[in-house]
Amino acid sequence: MFYSKRLFGLFYLVAGLMAACNNGSSGDQAKSQDDSRYFSADRSVSILAPAKWTVKTAELPRGVKLFLQSPSEGVLDAFGEYIMINEDALADGDALADYIGFLINRPSPEFEELSVIKDSTLEISGQPARMVVFRAKHREQGGTVVLMNYFVQSGRVVYMINAGTLPSTYETWGAKLQQLCLTFRLE
User: How far apart are CA 182 and CA 40, in angstroms?
Assistant: First the structure.
């Protein structure tokens, strides 16, 4: 089982994608004045994104379907909130609960602290889903983030809608990110 390596490897992946977005990449699809629905390159999933967000749908690492990042809110904005949708195959004989349980119970050595803030069930895109919110402190970089993870299973594939913000902005950004994550749709 490589689940924990995959989840926490996402931390580095997000950092790289955020750097690419901040270096002038304007996204891969046109933006309008209102929220727009963006589709993965293979059109298997979609999500709504606000007009000024950067959206990447192509040239993404294997398993990543979409990457969205909030625009800078000024010079004091220390973190670009993001949403990343990726997919992973369930191991033979595993159910979604096994997959999530492994992630919760086997934290990566990359993090000094990993705690579950919230764990609940819901429905997304007509499928049973589960939301797990983590607070995680990265061992090397020392920064703490709040990671909101939504898990949706379709056949033997798990779609993870991952969103991240800082603990100091979770009160405001958490609700905004959740609202966007819940627009995820299997196509």
Answer: 16
